[in-house]
Every structure is written in structure tokens, then in C-alpha cells.
């Protein structure tokens, strides 16, 4: 028995990311590769610098394709859920940065079919409501509306059906059993679904780069096994770690695990404050005196980790927080307050963007340059 | 080991239809049921009278629904192939008769996805070409263009996708394994496909009647297991025997088995004449003298059987042929000539209808009353 489990539907235990790289057969993003990226984009991203994006497949080839002018495209996705939480934003925000820096097309698959197939308690209307809400959250992040295509699987299925069949024809039952742990009691829709998650990686005859959490990698293993046989590139990927839940730095933030483990994008200021104060696991000491004397431990402190991943991109500022917390100068309550302020500011701006996103949603789904092209296209 | 095999993809051996009724758990169409049908439609059909349609599920309930004014609808389909042969027309012609007599809606599913998934040697363009050709052949038969909806799975998929997923969610891998003999080497598209063949039986909230060859029944067994759980009726079906190939009365006519076993709808007069004279298995005697003396055997004579199934609907006329052949008065060559003439007349008229079918195709696929309604509808 492994002491942790990582599949697209379950993350549990204390994940050992080095083991995972070996287990999945991916590569670590090392210092050299980070430098290549920085050189290519003339800039940095804290999620890379801080190893939150830590693993990849063929990212070096993506950079080469960029250099030679061949180009590449981005693809990511979302299984629509009732409420999106801040953890869901991590790969999306990194994707946004990549799109901006490289000026490439981006495809965002909303897998309403997957959610419906894997969650028998959902009815279709509920899934659609969640999908529409999630699309608005995503659009609010500010992707390039002329170069981004957001599509629901159920809406775009006609345009991809022949390619979907072609992909499915290459994948056997035993493959999805061994890759995803399916068995004979798995419904035939779930068995089929992986083909649809592979398809967008074939949207252009260029290399595809998929920013995602590492649990999605099993799909890309299948993609890489069949892509060349179908006349496409093996996809590249950059993998991030799991965004820690409020209760501690192991596991993965999940809305379905109960709202007290996550900050939802819809949480108001008071809720955020209460949740952080009440639930955020602290690396601080039992008393102020002890904390002043011994200092806190940022490595296991959820507020510190969240600042590091999302809310404090400035390296010097983060370093100061680290030092002050370690030394005992910064108290746990003060650190929490810092996070609460950043979080509430972020959520306030996000909500404003969401409220104004209508036009961009329309563009990214139907009327923008890329979206329009996509609706006119059929993939065979 | 059974001495014959019947699956949707293979028919071999000398099929024992009584055994098949037991094996599949269907019911025989008995004299009483035939009478009920005749009473309901004020007419007869020779395919019923002569037990070519021999088995059913819930046909009695269909008649009851008709009587009480609840009504029902018809559904049949076609896996598009390179050339349609006369055997393919049998269920379609019977369906046409049912539609006319009962005045009901008819859905014809063109399973381009199935063909593509099950036949790796096909490319998509080829399947589409075959599908369009087959649709023209079907439309030429003269269904009611306002009450018939012919659709390709690939074209209509968006409209049914939620219902397709709902159906797939109810079917496990072990079900399709046991019903169709799939295994872990089966591709995930084939595994999924049965859900799509079930879906049209849910197109109306009425009972569905499916005229088809008996080899398609496994799909309806699955349908009947899940229909009520999804809020629909268990489908009814009427099953026909297999149209015998030229070489003998066992097995099933197949275009892929080689063109000398089948009469294609595109065969010209000379080809028909040559094929019948050269290949049609005869129940006649070795010499004219012997034939005059001992008589032929209509039961194993392919030309006689074809007349019985398709080309001589008049009972008295068929009886006379039977008697004359049995007595030796009618020679094998004369019987063949009779068939050749009927066949060529039929094919000539069919080709004329096909040439003029353009407007009806348009109506049945897109612009007729039923088709228009169907394109405006999404099934959830």
C-alpha cells in the first residue's frame, strides 16, 4: 500500500511529490528549465519559482517550438462543481500568465459530461447551472477573449464527434481500467469519457501545453500513447501540486469535502474572516509567549502557504513574512489577518470582474475570433 | 457449443428460430396476435402471414396502446455500408407498411458512429459517403416525409447528448460484455455505442415499436432493463428472420461477404440476371427429366424464398408457384426467370424513386414536420 493516493477523482494522504514524479514518469522542472522559461518570456512567475508548478512533460520541446516560430497552444479544463474555490484558480491563473506571455490560443474544456457521469446524484440541470456559473468565474480571470475558446462538452460535441470516435477507437477497456482503476461495474459513459478529455489536445496541429494539477496526468499518458498514431503531437504538460485545504497542508482543497475546508469564490468578507480564524491550520505556537520565544513554522502553516502560492507574489515580501514568522516577530493571528485582507481584496475584485464578464463570456464561448473559428470547424 | 451464432455483428450456421426465441426470451407471433393486427389495420402483410416476421416483444401492448388512443411510435435503423442489398429492405418495407397503417411517427437512426467504431479499416469520409448513399436508398422507399425523421448519429449527437449520458450512466461494462461478448480489448467507443442505439426508443413518452432483424434484439434487452428507471416505456419489437444469401437459405445476406452472395440495389439488369442464374441455390433437380418427374423443393430454393419474402405478396400466386414447382411443372430456370423479372422491375422502380428522393430526404432529415420538431428539441 502506498501512503498516499492520487487519481483524477481522489487525492488522499501526505503526497510525496518526488515519488509521484517517478510513479507517473514525469520530469521535475529544474533550475535550468526555469531559466529557459524566464528567458523566453522575459519574466518570472512565483508559482514556478516556488516550485508549486514542479513537474512537466516536454515543456522543453514547447519552448523550442516557441523559439523556432512553430508555436504551440494551451489547453486546460474544469469539471463544473457547485462552487469554485480559490484552489481551482491556481492552474487557471498560471495558464493566464502563459497565454499573455506567449500570446497563444487557449482552449478551456468544461466537462459537464464527466461530472454527470461520475456523480450519479447530479441531475443534468444542476450540472448545467454549475457549468454556467463556473464559466463566469473562469472568464472573470481575464483571458484574451479573442484567443480563448471556452466550451461545454455537451455543446461542442457535434463539432468533435468524428475525432472523438477516432480517439475512442484507439483506447481499449483494459487501458482505462489500468490507468484509472475502472472495473466492470464502471458505467460505459465513464469508460468512454477519457476520449473527450484527450480530444482538445488535438485542436491544432501544433504541440499542446496543458497546465493542470498532477492528478490529471493519467489522461495525458493515454494521449501520449495514441497521439502520434493519429497524426498529432504528444501533448506537453506542466503539473502543479495540490492547493492545501484549510485544515492542513496535506490533501487537496475540495468543495465537496465540506465548505469549512475551502474558501469559495462566493464567500463574503465575514465568512472568509471566520473560516480563516477558525479553521486555518497554524504553524504558530500554543501561546503568544511561546511563539515570541520559539517562532512559528511556515512549512506547515496554511495561511503562509496560501500567501506563498497565491496571494504574495513578491519574493522579498514573502521572505520577510517567512523570517518574521520564523523568528516569532509575526504572530499567527497577524499572519491570518494578512491573509484575510489579501483574500478579501482578491475576492472583491474577482466578484467585480465576474459581474462584468458577460461580454467576455460571449466572446470566449461564441463570438470571439477563436471561438468563431471553432464553431465553424468540424474535427474529423 | 450452439450450432449457430446470432449477434448484431455475426450470423452463422443454420439458425433455429424457435431456439432463438427461447434463448433471447422473446415471444412467437402466433395466429391470435396476427389476427389482432389484421383487425387493427384492416389488412394483411405477407411478411407476417408467412412468418418472416416471427417474433416480438410487447406487440400486444402496442396494439392496446393503439386501441386506447395512447398511440405509439416506430424506430428502426441502419448501420451504413458500402452498398445496400435487397435483404436490408425487409425490415424497412415492413416498417413503411406499419407507418402507413397506423399513421405514426418513425425515427430512422443512421449509425455512422457504430460503423466507424466497429470497422477499423473505414475512414470517416467513407462512412459518411456510405451513410448519405444509404439514406437515399431508404428515402426512396417512400416513408411519410412529414412523420419520418432520418438522422445520422454524428449529426444529431448534440441534441441527444444529455439523454445519451443518462442512458450510459445506467449501463455497466459487465452488461455490454455479457450481452455483446465484448472484452477488455474492445475499444471504449464500442463499449459506449450501445447507449446511442437505445436512445431513440426514448424519443417520445409513448411505447416504441422496433421492427428489425432478430440479431438486434440484445440492444432491446438492455433498453428494457433500464427504460422504466429513466421514466420511459420498455420498448416493443417485431423481429424478422434473416434474408437468405444467394448461396442457400441458411445464414444472412451480407454485402461484405462478397458481392456474389447478395443483390445490391445498384446491380443492373444484366448483373441481376447473371447472379441469379449463376449463384442462386436451387431446390430443383439435376436434370429437367428428373425435375418433371420428382418436382423441386421450394423450402430450400433461394429464388422461391425470395419471392415469398419480398417479390410475390399475393398468396394465391405464391401458392400456385409452390404447387407448380413441387409438381415439377415449373422448372428451376423458369422460377429463376420469374425472380429475375420481378427483381429487375423492383430495382428499376427503386432507382427511379431514389433519383427523385432529394426533396423527401431534405424533409425527412431537416425540414419536414417531425424533422423540424426534432432539430428544435434537446433530450435531457
Structure description:
- 2 copies of one chain form a homodimer.
- By secondary structure, chain A is of the alpha/beta class.
- Chain A has 2 domains: 15-246, HUPs (Rossmann fold, 3-Layer(aba) Sandwich); 259-354, Tyrosyl-Transfer RNA Synthetase.
- Chain A contains 19 helices and 9 strands.
- Chain A has helices at 17-24, 31-41, 46-49, 59-67, 86-102, 112-118, 124-139, 153-168, 173-180, 188-192, 194-198, 217-226, 269-279, 288-294, 302-311, 315-327, 332-355, 358-367, 369-375, and strands at residues 4-7, 10-13, 27-28, 53-57, 72-78, 106-110, 148-152, 207-213, 236-240.
- In chain A, strands 3-4-9-8-5-6-7 form a 7-stranded mixed beta sheet, with helices on both faces.
- In chain A, helix 7 packs across helix 17, helix 13 (269-279) packs antiparallel against helix 17 and helix 15 packs parallel to helix 17 (332-355).
- Chain A is globular, with a radius of gyration of 21 Å.
- Chain A starts with a strand and ends in a 5-residue tail after the last helix.
- The interface between A and B is large, with 38 and 38 residues.
Short synopsis of the structure:
The structure is a homodimer of 380-residue chains. In chain A, helix 15 (302-311) runs parallel beside helix 17 (332-355). The first copy, chain A, contains 19 helices and nine strands.
List the SSEs and their pairings.
2 copies of one chain form a homodimer.
Chain A: E1 4-7, E2 10-13, H1 17-24, E3 27-28, H2 31-41, H3 46-49, E4 53-57, H4 59-67, E5 72-78, H5 86-102, E6 106-110, H6 112-118, H7 124-139, E7 148-152, H8 153-168, H9 173-180, H10 188-192, H11 194-198, E8 207-213, H12 217-226, E9 236-240, H13 269-279, H14 288-294, H15 302-311, H16 315-327, H17 332-355, H18 358-367, H19 369-375
Parallel strand pairs in A: 5-6, 5-8, 6-7, 8-9
Antiparallel strand pairs in A: 1-2, 3-4, 4-9
Helix pairs in contact in A: 2-4, 7-17, 13-17, 15-17, 18-19
Amino acid at each position: 500500500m502506498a501512503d498516499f493516493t492520487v487519481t483524477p477523482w481522489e487525492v488522499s494522504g501526505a503526497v510525496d511529490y518526488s515519488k509521484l514524479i517517478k510513479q507517473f514518469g514525469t520530469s521535475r522542472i529544474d533550475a535550468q528549465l526555469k531559466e529557459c522559461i524566464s528567458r523566453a518570456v522575459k519574466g518570472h512567475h512565483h508559482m514556478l519559482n516556488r516550485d508549486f508548478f514542479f513537474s512537466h512533460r516536454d515543456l522543453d520541446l514547447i519552448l523550442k517550438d516557441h523559439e523556432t516560430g512553430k508555436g504551440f497552444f494551451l489547453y486546460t479544463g474544469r469539471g463544473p462543481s457547485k462552487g469554485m474555490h480559490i484552489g481551482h484558480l491556481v492552474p487557471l491563473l498560471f495558464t493566464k500568465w502563459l497565454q499573455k506571455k506567449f500570446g497563444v490560443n487557449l482552449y478551456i474544456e468544461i466537462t459537464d459530461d464527466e461530472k454527470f457521469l461520475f456523480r450519479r446524484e447530479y441531475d443534468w440541470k444542476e450540472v448545467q447551472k454549475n457549468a454556467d456559473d463556473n464559466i463566469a468565474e473562469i472568464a472573470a480571470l481575464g483571458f484574451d477573449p479573442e484567443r480563448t475558446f471556452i466550451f461545454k462538452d455537451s455543446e461542442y460535441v457535434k463539432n468533435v464527434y468524428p475525432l472523438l470516435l477516432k480517439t475512442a477507437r484507439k483506447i481499449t477497456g483494459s487501458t482505462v481500467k489500468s490507468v484509472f482503476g475502472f472495473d466492470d461495474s464502471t458505467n460505459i459513459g465513464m469508460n468512454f469519457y477519457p476520449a473527450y478529455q484527450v480530444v482538445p489536445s488535438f485542436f491544432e496541429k501544433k504541440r499542446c501545453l496543458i497546465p493542470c494539477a498532477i492528478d490529471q496526468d493519467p489522461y495525458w499518458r493515454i494521449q501520449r500513447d495514441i497521439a502520434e498514431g493519429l497524426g498529432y503531437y504528444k501533448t506537453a504538460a506542466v503539473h502543479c501540486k495540490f492547493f492545501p485545504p484549510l485544515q492542513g497542508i496535506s490533501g487537496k482543497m475540495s468543495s465537496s469535502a465540506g465548505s469549512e475546508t475551502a474558501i469559495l469564490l462566493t464567500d463574503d468578507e465575514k465568512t472568509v474572516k471566520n473560516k480563516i480564524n477558525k479553521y486555518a491550520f497554524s504553524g504558530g505556537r500554543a501561546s503568544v509567549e511561546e511563539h515570541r520565544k520559539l517562532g512559528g513554522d511556515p512549512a506547515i502553516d496554511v495561511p503562509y502557504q496560501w500567501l506563498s502560492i497565491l496571494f504574495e507574489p513578491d519574493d522579498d515580501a514573502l521572505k520577510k513574512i517567512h523570517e518574521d514568522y520564523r523568528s516569532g516577530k509575526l504572530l499567527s493571528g497577524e499572519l491570518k489577518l494578512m491573509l484575510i485582507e489579501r483574500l478579501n481584496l482578491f475576492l472583491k475584485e474577482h466578484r467585480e470582474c465576474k459581474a462584468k464578464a458577460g461580454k467576455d463570456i460571449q466572446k470566449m464561448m461564441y463570438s470571439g475570433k477563436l471561438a468563431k473559428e471553432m464553431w465553424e470547424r468540424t474535427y474529423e
